[in-house]
Amino acid sequence: MRRWLRTPTKEPDTTPFADYFTGRAPVMSEPTVDTEHVSTKSWGVRTFLTLEENTPVEDATALIQSAYTDLAANVEGLDHATLLISWNGTGPAGEDLHTAIDVDLVRPHSELDFQCERLRIAAGLNQGSIGAVGIPLETDDAIAISHIDADTLPADAVLAPPAAADGTTLTYEDRLKVGSTSLTISATSDVDLSGVPLDAVLAALPGGAEDPAREPIVTLDAVGPGYADGLPAINIYEQDLTLDEAEPILRAFDGADGPHAIKLQVASLPDAEMRFLLTDGTLTADPSWHLAEEEMADLLARL
Q1: N or C: which end of the chain has fewer CB within 10 A?
Q2: Which range, of 4-8, 78-82, 99-103, 209-213, averages the lowest pLDDT?
Q3: DSSP state of 141
């Protein structure tokens, strides 16, 4: 019996990548280049680049575009040729700012352009309270925004973010610490969340400063599984939250714009949560939710 043996593909030479970026502005230090054995017939290359502090976004995107053209011959036959680029700097209000973007030189040039556009848009959101911006490799993954800790909701919280220039929808994930509350906003450019009364909700939450175990967690979701039936979902959790403490939280939504889906977890319901709908300024119990019905009716009656 004749057996055919596959000849493994030779590990790629990383020297062209290291040589290309070494000493090339705005790269600050020598690049780190690793190979990845994807399969017996396929290899990839990952290049880690740290840019000079306060590198302008346009200089970073120019480096990416040049690399795409100049290294075209070297990426042929590779499964991927990823650039993982990051740099530190100072934001418009003097705050520390970390920026990162990942691109793949093997993929179509149109995707590279899209990544660079996402970076420009994300960087333009900062009004002085954003501490980190990240553009992940996959274009359908959310643009990552992290805010510096603040006592109140910052003006540049990502509630009504822009789309791409051609109208393509962009998704964002914004992580914030407002007072003692951890807040995550999953936003998309085709849903305006600016009408959600987040300021009032945050003000109504019992503080967790005295007891870190009680630090509230709030998520506002217009992208993922929480975006049920086309309604932005607000999920509110705080350890040992009582019905009396839940009342002012729910009251913060009364009369606000909608529609929204609201979920509240209270200590008296260890295995269930309360779910409400906000439509045309009116709060009602979610008719599809059949747990904690008495508690929901109790809270609504207090408004």
Answers
A1: N
A2: 4-8
A3: S
Query: What's the pLDDT tens digit per position in 170-196?
Result: 999 999 999 989 999 999 999 899 989
Please, which pLDDT band fits residue 201 given cuts at 50, 70 and 90?
very high
Residue 222 Cα to chain centre, angstroms = 12
Q: CA neighbours within 13 Å on the CB side: how many for 22?
A: 9
pLDDT tens-digit map of 112-121:
999 999 999 9
- Other CB atoms within 10 A of residue 131 CB: 17
Name residue 256's amino acid. A
Q: How many residues in total does the chain contain?
A: 303
Q: Which two tokens stand for residue 153?
A: 């909701």
For tokens 């503080």, name the residue: 207
- What is the pairing mode between strands 171-178 and 143-147? parallel
Contact call for residues 153 and 198 (beta carbons, < 8 A): yes
Dist CA 49 CA 29 (whole Å): 8
d(CA 147, CA 102): 20
Single-letter amino acid code for the residue at 179: G
Report yes or no: 91 and 117 within 8 Å, Cβ to Cβ: no
Task: Give the CA dihedral 243, 246, 251, 256, nearest 10 degrees.
Answer: -140
Statement: the pTM of the whole predicted model exceeds 0.85: yes
CA–CA separation, 128 and 217 (whole Å): 24
The letter for the amino acid at 9 is: T
Q: What angle do CA 69, 70, 73 make, to 5 degrees?
A: 90
Structure-token pair, residue 268: 């008296």
Between vectors from CA 178 to CA 172 and to CA 180, what angle results, nearest 5°?
A: 130
Question: Could you give the 3-state DSSP secondary structure of residue 124?
Answer: coil
